[in-house]
Amino acid sequence: MADKSFFIDTTKCTACRGCQIACKQWNKNPGTKTLQRGNHQNPADLSTSTFKLVRFNEIEIPGGEPKWYFFPDQCRHCMSPPCKEVADGKAKGAIIHDEKTGAVIFNPKVKMKQGDFKEVREACPYDIPRISGAGIMAKCTMCFDRINEGMLPACVKTCPTGTMNFGDRDAMLNMANKRLEEVKKVYKDAMLANPDDVRVIFLITDDPKNYHKFAVAENTIGITRKMALKRLFQPFTSLRHMIG
Ligand code: SF4
Ligand code: SF4
């Protein structure tokens, strides 16, 4: 099976939340109690039972008109997943990177200590990993079981607007770049979010922060500032070990 990717065209999203529900249903995840918090987003955040979340953000534009930003958030299945880099040093086999599809999968059979998990979560530029009280990490699986049977991921299959797309990486990159060209005619700030670093490519039309704090990675190499600093000082730390 070839290298896979998603293309998520937020210009087409109506925030119907079909993808969010389909994800819950396929993964047999329990419902989360809804709460009115002043906007239409529910639940408040991703969790071990919510792998896909349609984020809503309301911004007041000059003139006082409200503008809605919809962002169907999920794991980006990074090309070089920083979560795995950290997890490998904490609990072997906790995160698997499938060579064929590129899917990044949290292994429910390997437990992670809560303290170690903190570092795994901090390593993710998109703030995706979550953990249960029992130490089981969870997030989007790329519907690995479905795609291995030649089916589309549940969120893509259910999306009625063409926002969610999935296929071979080359085809998805092509689709994303073509659509970006079109959209730029109307929205000059339109962009693809970290397309070279991730397998879930979002097309957005405005400042990423208007969509979600973690819509794009802080830097273009897909690692957090904290990780970059850690790497920078690693040689000195190793040297200290050798001398000591
Ligand atoms: S988005 Fe986060 S959890 Fe998903 S593969 Fe990348 S680093 Fe890992
Ligand atoms: S199913 Fe499609 S249109 Fe509906 S919220 Fe999800 S991405 Fe948006």
Can you give a write-up of this model?
The longest helix has 19 residues, at 225-243. The protein has 8 helices and 10 strands. Residues 234-244 have low confidence and may be disordered. Helix content is 30%, strand content 19%. By secondary structure, it is α+β, with helices and mostly antiparallel strands. Helix 2 runs antiparallel to helix 3 (114-123). The structure holds iron/sulfur cluster (SF4) (2 copies). One iron/sulfur cluster binds next to helix 1. The site of one iron/sulfur cluster has 13 residues, from helix 2.
Q: Would you tell me the structural class of the helices and strands?
A: alpha+beta
What is the overall number of helices?
8
Q: What number is the mean pLDDT? A: 91
Distance between the termini: 49 Å
Q: Tell me, briefly, the overall form.
A: globular
Identify low-pLDDT runs. Answer: 234-244
Task: Return Rg in Å.
Answer: 19 Å
Q: In sequence order, what are the helices and strands, one letter per element?
A: EHEEHEEHEEHHEHEEHH
Q: Say how many strands there are.
A: 10
Strand order in the largest sheet: 8-1-10-9
Write the layout of secondary structure elements.
Elements: E1 4-9, H1 18-26, E2 53-61, E3 65-73, H2 82-88, E4 95-97, E5 104-106, H3 114-123, E6 130-131, E7 137-138, H4 144-147, H5 154-158, E8 164-168, H6 169-184, E9 191-192, E10 200-204, H7 208-211, H8 225-243
Parallel strand pairs: 1-10
Antiparallel strand pairs: 1-8, 2-3, 4-5, 6-7, 9-10
The protein binds iron/sulfur cluster (2 copies).
The site of one iron/sulfur cluster has 13 residues, from helix 2.
